[in-house]
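Reviewer 2 asked us to include a model.

Predict the structure of this chain.
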Amino acid sequence: MKDLVSIQTASQQAQEEQPMAEVMTLQEILDAYGSELDGSPSVYCGTYRKYNEGSIFGAWLDIAKFDSYDEFIDVCRQLHADEEDPELMFQDYEGFPESLYCESCMGEDTFDKILEYARLEENDREAFDDYLDLGHDYDLEKFREAYCGQFSSKVDFAEHIIHECYDIERTMGSLASYFDYEAFARDLFMGDYEMGYNSHVFRVF
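Predicted model (structure tokens):
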């Protein structure tokens, strides 16, 4: 029994001698991870306890500034180090699709998808936004398979298809100038293709 007490006492002393992990100040967090709200994927991190007590204290954090999900969660907890076990509340967001936003359940998979989205080129991001707005699930591989390009109108896309796939001047001769591109466009977009708000066209599988 005496040996057990000695071991417990030694263990407690060792824990007490270990230095406490340093908690960053609010300003240090903002300097390193704060968002400029310039379109970079960001969330406003508060807690449910503070919100229920009438406080919206928190900070806008730029997700692209973190190297990992674990680092992100650690900084969020340091931001609210005044609570023993903060229940994080992401009260607002910007710079990534609404389908990836969750007020209380930012998991590692979602975090990785947000970073993946942020790394897209601007035009690809706009096209992907169109794809998502059309009701498709977040799936970059399927998006790339379906994407056909950006066109000024559905008729413009119909003309592109005709010129790419058919030699109507050879097959129709002088009648080619009478080809009804508007009717062809209506047929194409009856179920084979769809166009988003920013005029990006996608093949329907």
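The first helix runs from residue 2 to 17. The longest strand covers residues 88-94. We have added this to the supplementary material.
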